[in-house]
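Hi C.,

You asked whether I'd gotten around to modeling the 318-residue construct. I have! Everything is below, sequence then structure, no commentary in between.
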Amino acid sequence: MRSITTNPRLLRDFPPRRRYLVGVSGGRDSVVLLHWLVGLEYKKLVVCHLNHQLRGRSSDADARFVQKLASKYDVDLEIGLRNVGAIAAREKLSLETAAREARYRFFAQVAKRRRCRTIFLAHHADDLVETFLMNLFRGAGITGLSAMREIATRRVEDVDLTIARPLLGAWRGDIDTYVGKHRLKFREDASNKNLTPLRNRIRRRIIPYLEKTIGRNIRGNIWRAAMIATEEEKWIESLAKHSDLQDVDLSVEKLRHLPTALQRRAIMKWLRARHVADVGFEVIERVRSLLDRDAQVAKINLPQDRHVRRRAGKIFLE
């Protein structure tokens, strides 16, 4: 088992003397991340906690726990409140998706207010493996399979948020060992035992079954595949950057001259930049169908009552 080690790149790219945000839910992983960063002399941290209002008094208790934790380490604190259940119903999203989107919007608002565009998150190696499998089962391409990176940039509203995941090479067992060694207290989320969410079923049923049946280091192999996918994704992104297709409208002619893979990439980036929810293969292919010279339809429907049209050689959103 590997221990939680310090990547020299972390200290080089994110010097401890600067201010950073850190997402802290109060759970085991984020408590370890905060303790670890404080131990590395990161003194200008801003702890960010979003109360999702999904677990009643337990959610309020999580917020109070994080407040005490920030006080203990003498770091700044930002606590937000969002009714994620109502957001999910209104925007027709799953609870997991609504919660994730609400968190990133909250992080972006704090980043803007604090003039700090970098946030540390506590995702670890097991999270990466689970996300890889979730996206694989959903039919994702390389973009989805490499969705969780050590360092990534995500545009949220008008903020370019840099996301750093320094624990992505550490396993859940490493984190448990760290908790025991430093006798850290944390909040247990009872919903992690609920097998309805796909992630929990993958974590508690599918991965153990694969390990028992195949008898190999399944998690390690999947983690390696995700790392390979990430490097390949970076290379494809470097090609897509030169396609000059991130304007308000997409040029039909420019898209037609691109290889299929870059067409899909350009459309995906364009839709995400305009906050279109659940941009998957089917949505991208429907937009791509507008490039067909023989297409009879010049309009396609998107989630949340939005539409993409083709007119006068341009593809635009309305």
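If it helps when you're writing up: The domain at 244-317 is CATH 1.20.59.20 (Chorismate Mutase Domain, subunit A).

Thanks,
B.
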